[in-house]
């Protein structure tokens, strides 16, 4: 899976002097939508490039990315896709650990 | 000292044009170990950019990253603070102190260059696209090189084999499959690509035919080393018959070259069941 889209967006943010938050799938267990290394880049205005797995946990990670942009701390987010939501099973059945970091030029 | 912007730019260059780099990021550590989460070091074959705190840990990570490049690894690794790699969940849980490092090889998407748009080329391209490769297909016959023929994302090139191949950019991340309509065309194509440092060159054909082609090219003065690296007859021996099966055999061989492996069944043929029954 080519990641140059994400790096492209990172580079142009830096040229404008803007920080970004980068979320990278660090580890997966069981059935997960994306594999280790998949990336999502989140800008200060909340817009993002790339995906770490569609609906499955992405909103949660986006929120952590926004928080990381705010406080500057790198963090590990565990997304558990095995818990049923609204009485229904989620489509994916695994656990993902996602590393979220704020990067700036 | 490399700034975050230097690192981002270097990653972009690696992802766009190469050469490949192993990006090593400190993600965290067990309590009591001082690390800077987010610290990054880019490890190239011959140098490092950035740092992750120096000491034996940095040296060990650089060493690991360097070895990861040819394997195209993307993996989270655990090290002790003094630089020992800890493998396996039990060992990691048992260790007193662990530093977690994300090692990702960043490189341009691999290209699958298919020479020949016939049945086999069609199937090879399809499987390559499924594997996330950027697929290009070349043929000189319009019936075999038009966008309608290929129901997947591919750069379809219709033109003279020699000229188009001459022009096509080839690097260590280019995988070339010669499956044209005949060994004359395959020979011409191989002459054009053999010495250009592709990650893989495979040519279809019987042992006898392919040997003749290699012999011709050797006599013409093509580097023997380059000819030695050609996978021909092409593919893994899985008894493939149909174009689709041949595609599986060819892409299996390409994965083997990219990732390394034994190319044997994982199972020990029948022994598993026998041991359960016992």
Q: Count of helices of chain A?
A: 2
The radius of gyration of chain B is 23 Å
The radius of gyration computed from the alpha-carbon positions of chain A, rounded to a whole number of angstroms, is 14 Å
Indicate the percent of residues in helices of chain A: 10-25%
| Corresponding CATH architecture of the largest domain in chain B | 3-Layer(aba) Sandwich
State the largest interface: A-B, 26 and 25 residues
Secondary structure tally: strands of chain B: 11
Give the domain tally of chain A: 1
CATH topology of the largest domain in chain B: Rossmann fold
Structural topology:
The complex is a heterodimer of chains A (105) and B (278).
Chain A: H1 4-15, E1 20-29, E2 39-43, E3 48-50, H2 58-71, E4 75-80, E5 95-103
Antiparallel strand pairs in A: 1-2, 1-5, 2-3, 4-5
Chain B: H1 4-16, E1 21-29, E2 40-43, E3 48-50, H2 55-68, E4 74-79, E5 85-86, H3 89-94, E6 99-106, E7 111-115, H4 119-130, E8 134-139, E9 155-158, H5 161-167, E10 174-178, H6 183-193, E11 200-203, H7 207-220, H8 224-228, H9 243-259, H10 271-277
Parallel strand pairs in B: 7-8, 7-10, 8-9, 10-11
Antiparallel strand pairs in B: 1-2, 1-6, 2-3, 4-5, 4-6
What does this structure look like?
The complex is a heterodimer of chains A (105) and B (278). Chain A has 105 residues and is of the alpha+beta class. Chain A has two helices and five strands. Chain A has helices at 4-15, 58-71; strands at 20-29, 39-43, 48-50, 75-80, 95-103. Chain A has a five-stranded antiparallel beta sheet, sandwiched between helices. In chain A, strand 2 (39-43) and strand 3 (48-50) form a beta hairpin. Chain B has two domains: 4-106, no CATH class; 111-259, Rossmann fold. Chain B contains ten helices and eleven strands.
Question: Could you give a quick summary of the protein structure above?
Answer:
The complex is a heterodimer of chains A (105) and B (278). With 105 residues, chain A is an alpha+beta fold.
């Amino acid at each position: 899976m080519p990641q140059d889209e994400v790096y492209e967006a990172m580079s142009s943010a830096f040229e404008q002097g803007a920080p970004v938050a980068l979320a990278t799938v660090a580890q997966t267990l069981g059935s997960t939508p994306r594999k280790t290394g998949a990336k999502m880049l989140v800008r200060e205005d909340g817009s993002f490039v790339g995906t770490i797995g569609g609906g499955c946990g992405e909103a949660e990670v986006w929120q952590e990315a926004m928080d990381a942009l705010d406080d500057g701390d790198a963090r590990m987010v565990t997304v558990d896709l095995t818990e049923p939501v609204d009485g229904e099973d989620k489509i994916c059945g695994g656990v993902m650990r996602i590393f979220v970091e704020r990067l700036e030029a | 000292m490399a700034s975050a912007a230097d690192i981002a730019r270097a990653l972009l260059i690696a992802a766009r044009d190469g050469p490949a780099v192993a990006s090593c990021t400190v993600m965290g550590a067990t309590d009591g170990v001082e690390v800077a989460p987010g610290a990054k070091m880019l490890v190239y074959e011959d140098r490092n950019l950035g740092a992750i705190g120096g000491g034996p840990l940095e040296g060990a990570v650089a060493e690991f990253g360097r070895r990861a490049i040819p394997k195209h690894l993307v993996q989270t690794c655990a090290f002790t603070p003094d630089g020992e790699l800890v493998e396996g969940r039990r060992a990691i849980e048992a260790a007193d102190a662990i530093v977690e490092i994300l090692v990702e090889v960043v490189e341009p998407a691999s290209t699958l260059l298919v020479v020949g748009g016939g049945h086999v080329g069609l199937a090879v391209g399809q499987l390559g696209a499924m594997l996330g490769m950027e697929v290009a297909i070349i043929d000189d016959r319009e019936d075999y090189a038009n966008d309608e023929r290929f129901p997947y994302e591919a750069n379809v090139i219709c033109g003279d084999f020699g000229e188009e191949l001459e022009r096509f950019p080839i690097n260590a991340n280019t995988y070339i499959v010669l499956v044209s309509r005949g060994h004359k065309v395959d020979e011409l194509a191989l002459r054009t690509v053999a010495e250009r440092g592709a990650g893989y060159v495979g040519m279809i054909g019987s042992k006898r035919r392919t040997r003749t082609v290699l012999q011709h090219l050797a006599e013409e003065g093509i580097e023997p080393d380059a000819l030695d690296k050609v996978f021909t007859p092409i593919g893994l021996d899985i008894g493939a018959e149909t174009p689709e099966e041949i595609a599986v055999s060819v892409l299996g061989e390409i994965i083997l070259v990219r990732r390394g492996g034994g190319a044997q069944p994982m199972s020990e043929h029948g022994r598993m069941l026998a041991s359960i029954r016992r």
